[in-house]
């Protein structure tokens, strides 16, 4: 089966190699800008990761005009405004973002203000509001999960109205994603496991989602295979470059997949427990993925069945229904192993979610934008059953 219509657009150039974050002169020459402003955070700076990139730029002829390190864990409008003002004052022609999703999203949003001006929320939030390409943006991820280095989305917290705002535009796609596994080796086992489960959820939800295409399916199933084969090893031994690299590439593949096929109710629930109970995004997805798949089971049986062998399960002789169940079992085996290693909680009760707030979380999941793309209608009292299972 093939969809009647789909589109695929991915102009972001991806380069991968251990050590490449301090050696990508050839790519800089192609982009043409000569003055770059760096956006990162204090943790990345203290770990010496930013210095690796800056040292590497010294012999390239590119000038670093300034550095912005005040990106909060969940990026806010205030930080974006400050970052854009400084980058403009320093005469930056391009931006280099070094960090996780919050840093990269801050850089994307700041680039809007640098090139278009105006008020971030009033003038630019929503979809396809930009009219022309922005300045060159280079993204160097230091986690393997969000995929922001290859997506056209930025999520910024509007602190005045206490709401997370999404910006979606093809001009937000970074020009270059520099994937260097050596930039991710400092992640703790907990952060490794939870960010990789975010990537896994992107891939699985993209694969079973309504807006699937053969192209996004190929990227999603490739990402799932890489994550299943490497998540435990990267969590156990953070300096294993092969395992780290596999997760980093998988995260980018999953990012490209979900930015075309979208995500569904697992992300809807994760956004709700994140917004209402401050559960970190990757942990929430790690807990909720099997439960969201159970919610959607009837609608996605056929697609889910195809993922069981991708995840390494023996399925010969099994019915599609049993194969699909195997896929969910496989996710549980994986998160169970990570839990035994002390790297991932398995229940909402373990991460500070009060049981009495579950109905409110269910309502928020229904209102989340991801409901629109979920294979099954997201209904509060029915999703509540699965939130209780996850509790
Ligand atoms: Fe996510």
Question: Care to describe what's here?
Answer:
The protein has 391 residues and is of the alpha/beta class. It has helices at 25-31, 42-46, 49-57, 77-89, 101-116, 120-124, 189-208, 214-236, 241-261, 265-277, 281-310, 320-340, 358-367, 380-390, and strands spanning 13-16, 35-39, 63-68, 94-99, 126-127, 137-141, 153-158, 163-168, 176-179. The protein has 2 domains: 13-183, 3-Layer(aba) Sandwich (Rossmann fold); 189-390, Dehydroquinate synthase-like, alpha domain (Up-down Bundle), CATH 1.20.1090. The chain is 52% helix and 11% strand. Helix 7 packs parallel to helix 9 and helix 11 packs across helix 14 (380-390). It is globular. It starts with 12 loop residues before the first strand and ends with a helix. The model has no long low-confidence stretch (mean pLDDT 96). The protein binds fe (ii) ion (FE2). Residues 198, 202, 267, 281, 285 line the site of fe (ii) ion.
The count of domains is 2
| Helix count from the secondary structure assignment | 14
Q: Structural class from helices and strands?
A: alpha/beta
Q: What is the CATH C-level name of the largest domain?
A: Mainly Alpha
Share of helix among residues? 40-55%
Report mean pLDDT, rounded to a whole number.
96
Corresponding CATH superfamily of the largest domain: Dehydroquinate synthase-like - alpha domain
User: How many strands in all?
Assistant: 9
Identify the bound ligands.
fe (ii) ion
Q: How would you classify the quaternary structure?
A: single chain
Task: Quote the beta fraction.
Answer: 5-15%
Task: Give the CA-CA distance, first to last residue.
Answer: 37 Å
Q: SSE string, helix = H, strand = E?
A: EHEHHEHEHHEEEEEHHHHHHHH
Q: How would you sum up the major sheet?
A: 6 strands, parallel
